[in-house]
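Handout for the seminar on molecular recognition.
Each group receives one record of this type.
Step one: identify the two inputs.
Step two: read the structure output and locate the region that could contact alpha-D-glucopyranuronic acid.
Step three: write two sentences on what you found, then compare them with the reference statements printed after the record.
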Amino acid sequence: MRYFLFALTLLFTVLPKILRAQEGNQALPDPFTFNNGKKVKSVKDWERRRKEILETMTREMYGVAPGRPKNMRFEVFDLDKNALGGKVTRKQVTVHITENGREAKFDLLVYIPNSAKHPVPAIIGLNFIGNQAIHPDPGIKLTTAWVENSRMFPCAVDGKATDACRGVNASQWAVDSILARGYALVTLYREEIASDRKAQAFQTGIHPLYPGLQQREDNFGTVAAWAWALSRGLDYLETDEDIDAKRVAVFGFSRLGKAALWAGATDRRFAAVLSNESGAGGGKQFRRGVGEDINRLCTAFPHWFARSFAQYKGKDTELPFDQHFVLSLIAPRPVYLATAEDDKNSDPQGEFATARAADAVYRFLGTNGLPDGPFPALNQPLAGQIGFHIRPGGHDVKMFDWIQILNFSDLHLQK
Ligand code: GCU
């Protein structure tokens, strides 16, 4: 009887899960099939298909972004050629944007290695707690935008950054290593662009400049807004003669990794995309049905994606795409997915499934894609045009992640 019950439990709990996961993989939408059922046969066809994918994902998931603002100005308000003990030039730049009679602004922190051959390649990424949090450098302006007072970063008072917020997130930013490898590092703060608080969503930062976009079902979601701001950062870098704007990689961790992938997907000027545990709505494949699903995403963070995405709550296997389509939009440019064993929410296997599924597009476009082989062992990075690793530990950015990300960047961005 006990065995019978055990078998029954297996039948009704585990088996459907396995079947669902496999079914999902089998039913993966094909990036090479046009909406009308025709097949992509040439690179020219792919360009048209890519446009179709971009339109679908914009409409059904991320939402419409406004494009490059006509009225945008860069104000370099800080220049120190002897920062961080003299090895680095620090610039701080305010991006001013005026649209529809309203103004928004956000700051870029730019560190440029003095010894490297200029112009240098760069890595640009959003941060969680303010620019001043990535390094204790007292020259970094404290953000004036709202800062959360979390258990991990107990530094803000009444939502305002204090000196205690300096360097508070430094462990996730390998500033010295990045600069020593010859990259400029550029960062910007998510809250200055679009609030990540549910109640304040769309009310601060850049969203009030585009009220029309919020009326639509495919509204300008917060992840898309962060991605859009990364493109504005690149607009600035194109004007900075110390930077080689043709060699700028976009980096992001977690929700900001979702934004980095979407920035790379929508803006082909980014030479590479480096994502760390971007998870659901980032590198993770929804159809595997493991970890965070669409229902959880759209319930806990309804502002991240367009309202239209909520129609897929509980219907992860019915999406007309999956996240390998995002990688397909980035192709053939290099993309890296860093994952961690205990980050179950992000489903490392699901990120690998995405990389594997996108491989065909990368190969079709003439690159080596993701190296062949099964899911890799811990700490054994794979590095083709698509790169991947899984390390022990949980949701975080560790030195190990940065070393792999920098090795991958060296492979693709250093001349
Ligand atoms: C939550 C969310 C994830 C996200 C993460 C983060 O855990 O569910 O999707 O990636 O926050 O940004 O740290």
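Reference statements: The radius of gyration is 21 Å. The chain has a mean pLDDT of 95.
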